[in-house]
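I have been asked to look over a protein record a colleague put together. The record follows directly below this note.
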Amino acid sequence: MRLFITLLSLGSMISFGYALAGYGGKLFGRGRTDYVVVGLIAGLTMAALSLYLWKKYLPSFLEDVQEDESPDGPDDKG
């Protein structure tokens, strides 16, 4: 799940980049409105979904870290 959330976050950044490219193209007279619209819609959707999933699965992410630790603490036998 962590990898999926990471990929959604990366996809949102790429989508926002497309939106900026479409808008920045207007400076050179070759802007594409479809890049702006699709980039913003896809970027906002992926960002919202990744935040929602992160909040939903955060307790299980924290449990994974705590399971790796020893319940007695570090061993100082040596």
